Amino acid sequence: MIRFYFHPTPNPAKVALFLEEAGLPYEVVPVDTARGEQHLPAFRAINPNGKVPAIVDTDGPGGKPARVFDSTAILLYLAEKTGQFGGAPEERPELLSWLLFLASGLGPFSGQAVHFQHAAPEGLGYAVNRYRREAERHYRVLDDLLATRRHMVGDAYTIADMSAWGWIDRAARVLKGEADPLAGFPNLKRWFAEVDARPAVARARAVGKDHAFKAMGDEESRRALFPSNYPSAAE
User: Fold this and answer.
1) Residue 180 is part of a domain; what is its CATH number?
2) For the domain that residue 11 is a member of, what is the CATH number?
3) DSSP state of 40
4) Which tens digit of pLDDT belongs to each residue from 149-187?
């Protein structure tokens, strides 16, 4: 059984998609990050970095429970455990390269673009421009890649596609103000439509809908989500 520590944000969405695609039995454990539950000792024992997603595999290597945190690590772990969506052996270098591109590029820059456009105080035009333009540059890299292949790694649907889907699904927030945020990236738009139409995507989007997560935007949620902005509260 997989215990899946979840909040409805892009990185947990990637793991939800894998679990639904693979048909693995799992239990959702809500972590309300707007309430600061990611900082509680019980969760820090699973992910010392205090971020979602994380999993505990009660039947890990050697039959012992195993914790795994960070969405990329979880996707790799589950692909290896199940033998699904990991691509062909000869595609391993490409798979790893694109997974790390997504983990170190698309995800962080998209997240910062969202933060500075939607959550940060006014008057930070340099930061808004910096992260928005870098997010757009990452979209362009993916659009160029998908001009010559169906999926991120050749023709096979893999964990790289799941990882990219998690953030491209939030394109409207990343590229704030665009009526059709993928209009300038036609290959990426074609790819996203194909992935988004998979039945498992609808099931992944339903994960956690039965839990009332706190809305973000008030002082409590800001302190919970951005504790380093409040030195007296920082650990």
Assistant:
1) 1.20.1050.10
2) 3.40.30.10
3) S
4) 999 998 999 999 999 999 999 999 999 999 999 999 999
